[in-house]
Amino acid sequence: MSATSGNTCRKRMRRHPSIVFCSMFFHAWLVIWGWCLSFSASTFAADPPLKTPHSITSAGATSIGVKECAACHSAPSPIYNFLGVTRFVRLVEAKEWLEQDKHAYAYQLVRQDLKADELKKEERISNKLSMEITARLNWKFGDGKFEQKCLTCHVGMDAKESIVERSNTIAPEIEIQFGVQCESCHGPGSEYTKREHHQQVSWRTKTPEQKSELGMWDLSSPSTAAKVCLSCHLGDIDAGRFVTHDMYAAGHPVLPPFDLQVFLSAMPPHWKTLQEKPTFEKSAEYNRAHFDIPGNTDEIQLAIRGSYDRTRRSMIGGLVANDLGIELIHRGAADPKTWGDYSIYNCMGCHQELKKNSTQVTRESRTPGRPFPANWLNLEYPRIHATNRETHETLTREMLSSFNSVPFGDALRIHQLSERHLQSLSDRFQDRRKMERQVMTKKDVLQWLEYLIASRNDSLTDFWVAKQTAWMVCVAMDELVKNEPLANEWVSPMRDELRDLLHLDLHLPQQQSVLTVQKSMLGTAQNFDSARCKELLNRLVEKAISNQ
Amino acid sequence: MTKPNALCRNLTIVTATFSLLLALVEQTRGQPSSKDTASSVSLPDVPKLSRWGVDSLHHVAQGVRGAASCATSSCHGGPKAGVSSADAARGSEYPLWLERDPHAQSWKTISSDTSVKILSKLGILRDGKIADAAGFQNCLACHNTDRTTTPEQLSPRITEGVGCESCHGPSQPWYDRHYQGAESAKYATAHLGLTDSGPLLQRAKICASCHVGGKDRDMNHDIIAAGHPALYFDMAVYHEAYPKHWRDKDESQPNFRSQLWLAGKIAMADAELELLESRACKSLPVSAWPELSNYQCNSCHFTLGGILKPISQLDRDLVTKGRAPVRNWNLSGIAAFSVSSDSVDSDLSGSFSRLRELLQSPNPDSKLVAAKSHQLRLQLVDALNKNGKPTLPAWSIQKQTALSIQLLNDIQQSNSWEAAADAYTSAWAIQPRSSAGKLERAMNTLRDGLLFPKDLMMPNFPRQQNGRTPPTLDEWNEALQQAVAALKNDGLR
Questions:
Q1: How many CB atoms lie within 10 A of CB B464?
Q2: Over the stretch B480-489, which tens digit does the pLDDT of each residue have?
Q3: pLDDT tens-place string over residues B174-200
Q4: What is the DSSP string of A198-217?
Q5: How far is it, in rounded angstroms, from Cα B344 to Cα B338?
Q6: CA-closest candidate to residue A515, choices A132, A115, A9
Q7: Which of A48, A88, A89, A262 is the most buried (most CB within 10 A)?
Q8: Residue B471 pLDDT > 90, yes or no?
Q9: How confident is the prediction for chain A on average, in pLDDT?
């Protein structure tokens, strides 16, 4: 975000002096409380197996609102430094988020009472677009639809708890003008700020699972983080977070494919990584709770410092996206009457020019003329760590054929098959957890790359698959270059070319509105040089392997 | 004398019971069945719809003799010497068809490399063998007189292509009768399945049974996606291009072409509704529901980057709601018919727009669509009814001109290829063109514009070139204005 938007934020802070007052009050209170702080060595409960895959349950917890969080997380006072609190929490989170993070603007883009000059030009265009979209769909602020279909993502509200029950009002404690806010991603705060306070020393000794029971989701776990991001960036029908084809047709920009690492690096970081936290230095138990490594603390540190953390995050994020795609299909096919929202199909399956020799749609093994599922559902994406790969591959094949058997797919059959997929999910979730705690070595990375390219080689003609694959390959290549003195001179030209071919940058180019970017990206998606992309990706991976 | 009376009474009772039964059948077919439709439903021949007189075309298996049996030199294998009267049969139908009619080349078409590719993509052919008999028979229904071919045994007449009996009906039942005098031939037409290709409406219905489709032949979106050209039939244009093996008495009448045009439009609408009903009932194994070719190509097939430009405002409103507008090409006859009949049949247009709305709603219920299409067909037959058979309503050049002007004016708003081609063919059917110079030039530009010029129309089919440079958008629009002006000037007098 530029300086202009920063100014807007400061203006908004001035409009909400309560944040500053609360903040001062809490500072004073913390000084007293702080004397009690000490960093004793802690004991860790055994890591209990999770009940549901990607569980981010928060029993009964409710939102408390961004002001409560901002009271402490806006600016660290010198006393925090003195007490060492800032060694594990930066305490500038709310400020950085509000000033720099796009998520804080999510509501501004869709708000219906925008006055002139409140946003900078590019964002005003986005807002105008959202007004057009809602006008076409006939949704208005306060009619329930706008809240249930738009604000679920643009504010990060929970459709069930906050909106459905009060269909015409916004839950008063959620200040919607702050967009996607702290609790949208970290979990509702009523329990961890009241019943068992997360400021207490004992909080540091809790396992991620215990924290999660109290409502604070463990975002240090890539699979939980991916689940949280994907509930908007892919969709969650039950939570009211799902961009339907009606919304796309009315003008909603296309959701890009997802890569956890790439998306996280595009965010201004308001967090400290596990490695940066003091507990990491001190406690072997703490490390074991997060990393499944035998040996003493020094060995663990050494292994983790040299590990391929980013590649692992990207890989696990991809696998979680895969699982969630199947969950989405399962939920959608539950009712054959409403089954078949066009947004779950590949755009290019229908929106193609009727030219001969179109490279977009490869028709092998498909009945011609039938829409096929979008690649972001990753139904064709084999799992590398699946314990029962054979079953998975049979299921994948059957799933694709049931999409093929009748136009838009046989809902009943798709529901049954995705049910069977999901039944094996709990096992695979344990796999994810295991993967999260294993240190990824260079050998693993190369294996992963080789596997990725081999399994996707045929589907790289699809722009979105090519883009997501390129993201994953680039994350891994960057980390290889960083960790080992790889010959960067051959990596970066190829990576740059890929970036241009596939629009890999997530940031909007300066002075360009969402409309311009969408238009040029969709144009590219239909005419991109897939042969060149394929060649570049293959060459990158081949060279990385041969350089070994 | 009592005996015949009793027979009469018995016959009356039997007929009455029969009609009652049929009426019941009709009734139940007219309403959506509450029972779950099985995957395959056979469509009964409803007597009212049999008035079209083309049912025999759907029962080819009953007795095809083959074109060769018509080709005796003293019958249709002539020519006979000294035939000069306009209403006399030529006697040279067979050699004319064989030498010049593209229908005679149909076997060549279906065994060409392109067709083999299409058949393979659809899984009908696998490793050079017929793997899907029903799929292949669906192809043969239009590409051959005889579709009794099975994977095990090819019909001996498989190379005949679209022969005599494809249009005139399978000849086994009527062969012996049709040359034994006018009365006998009339009987053959009324009862034995010899089709009556004389009246233009019936003739158009025969053409439409393949060039649009029908209850036993479905050229659907799967087949188009595999590479089969989409069907854009126009009776007047096709009739003009057709190497005729008959003579039309009325050919020199000024309104002949526009009569053909209207007959085509109405017959196409009936055929499209018949096909729609069959598709919705899934009566053929090749049919699928929802059937995407019921919708305008460009409601989905457009470039996402260059969003929505080529779609009319009306369609645009639908498309921005994520819905697909219904394809109008085969159904525009219902509107044309409403114009042609002096008292506008509001019932018919009402039913039509309700069916349209249903098709454009999300997840249209197939049973409801089947019922509504069927009902609309019955309404159409009733509206066309004269002396117990569908008859072309009175239609003048003035009416054709007024309609063409309206359609041409509409293009400027709708800006879709289909609408433009529809308007062009309507204007083309006006003959003779009195201000030949101006109108002719404008029409030529319009025609060249329909060869998919840049920036003009959707959809982006492969560009065809025939040596002429397509007009620019400005030139095309100017030609449009000129055509409208010329038509107003001359045609409406």
A1: 9
A2: 899 999 888 8
A3: 999 998 888 998 999 988 999 999 999
A4: TTSGGGGGS-HHHHHHTT--
A5: 5
A6: A132
A7: A262
A8: no
A9: 77
CA-nearest residue to B304 within chain A is A522
Pairing of strands B389-390, B129-130: unpaired
Is A361 an 8 Å CB contact of chain B? no
The residue in chain A having the minimum alpha-carbon distance to the alpha carbon of residue B225 is A369
Q: Do B305 and A363 touch (CB under 8 A)?
A: no
Report DSSP state, residue B454. Answer: T
Mean pLDDT value across residues B392-404: 90
Residues 6+ apart with CB under 8 A from A516: none
* Listed residue (A483, A448, A460, A465) closest to A313, CA to CA: A448
Tokens of A443: 């050998």
**Per the structure block, which two tokens stand in for A232?**
């908007």
Q: What are phi and psi of B389, to 5 degrees?
A: -145, 155
Going by the DSSP 8-state scheme, the letter that residue B466 receives in this structure is: S
What is the pLDDT confidence band of residue B143, given thresholds at 50, 70 and 90?
Answer: very high
Residue appearing with tokens 């306060």: A142
Which residue is listed with tokens 């507990």?
A279
Nearest CA in chain B to A522: B305
Query: Least CA distance to A342: which residue of chain B?
Result: B322
Distance from the Cα of residue A534 to its chain's centroid: 26
Label residue A296 exposed, middle or buried (CB < 10 Å: 0-12, 13-18, 19+): exposed
Q: What are the residues facing A373 on neighbouring strands?
A: A345
Residue A318, pLDDT score: 87
A409: left (phi over 0), alpha (psi -120 to 50) or beta: left
| Furthest C-alpha separation in chain A | 75
B contact test, residue of A354, A401, A403 with most B CBs within 10 A: A354
Residue A295's pLDDT is 61
Q: What is the mean pLDDT of residues A291-296?
A: 62
Asked whether the predicted pLDDT for residue B52 surpasses 80, the reply is: yes
Q: Is 0.90 exceeded by the ipTM?
A: no
Contact B198/B267 with Cβ under 8 angstroms?
no
Q: How far apart are CA A148 and CA A140, in angstroms?
A: 11
Helix (H, G, I), strand (E, B) or coil at A378: coil
- Pair B268, B459: CB distance under 8 Å: no
CB-closest option in B289, B292, B307 to A369: B292
Gap between the Cα atoms of A55 and B153, Å rounded: 61
Place of tokens 């095809």: B64
Q: Which residue has the higher pLDDT, A462 or A538?
A: A538
Contact B321 A370 (CB under 8 A): no
> What mean pLDDT comes out for the span B418-429?
89
Contact yes or no for B224 and A523 at CB 8 A: no
* Amino acid identity for residue A426 in this structure: S
| Mutation to test the B interface, candidates A353, A364, A402, A406, most B Cβ within 10 Å | A353
Cα B202 from Cα B197, distance rounded (Å): 6
Nearest alpha carbon to residue A288 among A134, B19, A279: A279
**pTM for the predicted model, two decimal places:** 0.82
Return the HEC string of A489-537: HHHHHHHHHHHHHHCCCCCCCCCCCHHHHHHHHHHHHHHCCHHHHHHHH
A382: preceding bond cis by omega (within 30 degrees): no
**Partner residues linked to B129 by β-bridges:** B126
- Chain A contacts of B462, Cβ < 8 Å? 354-356
Most confident of A71-80, B74-83, B268-277, B441-450: B268-277
AA letter at A139: W
pLDDT of amino acid A262: 95
Q: What is the DSSP string of A73-99?
A: HS---HHHHHHTGGGT--S-HHHHHHH
pLDDT tens per residue across span A38-78: 232 222 233 333 333 334 555 677 778 888 888 889 988 78
**Amino acid, res. B310:** P
